[in-house]
Amino acid sequence: MTDADTFFGQELPAVQQWTLSREDAGRISQPALSMVGEKSKALSPIWTERHELILAWLPTAEGFVLPDATHLLHVQYPRTVADGLAAFFARHPLRAP
């Protein structure tokens, strides 16, 4: 069995059955970062819609919009994305239990 078989045969169907309501999302207290490329909407409005949904539903979500990038922002501008992630983790360090 290949990784693709596992993903498309098992993992993807399981993810498709999972739902998250606004009420469920509102109980998430962990900081979250939503990153999107500014030009993503031109390719498909779904990327911007999901970004806005995350910001609206998660009480501690932060947004990061990368100018001149599409939804492949991590490929187009890896250093800028890495810097954005590093800044987020610096503001919200992981703590050992």
Give keywords.
97 residues, single chain, alpha+beta, 2 strands, 57% helix
Structural write-up:
The protein has 97 residues and is of the alpha+beta class. It has a domain at 31-97. The protein contains 6 helices and 2 strands. It has helices at 3-17, 22-26, 40-43, 45-57, 73-76, 78-91; strands spanning 32-37, 61-66. It is globular. The model has no long low-confidence stretch (mean pLDDT 91).
Tell me briefly what this model is:
This protein has 97 residues and is of the alpha+beta class. The protein is 57% helix and 12% strand.
Give the proportion of residues in helices.
Answer: 55-70%
Tell me the span between the first and last alpha carbons.
37 Å
Count of extended strands: 2
Cα Rg:
16 Å
The profile of the biggest β sheet is: 2 strands, parallel
Put simply, the count of helices is 6
Calculate the mean pLDDT score and round it. 91
Helix-strand pattern, N to C?
HHEHHEHH
Approximately how much beta-strand content do the residues carry? 5-15%
User: Which class best fits the helix and strand makeup?
Assistant: alpha+beta
Strand order of the largest sheet: 1-2
Q: Uncertain regions: pLDDT < 50 for 5+ in a row? A: none
Shape: globular
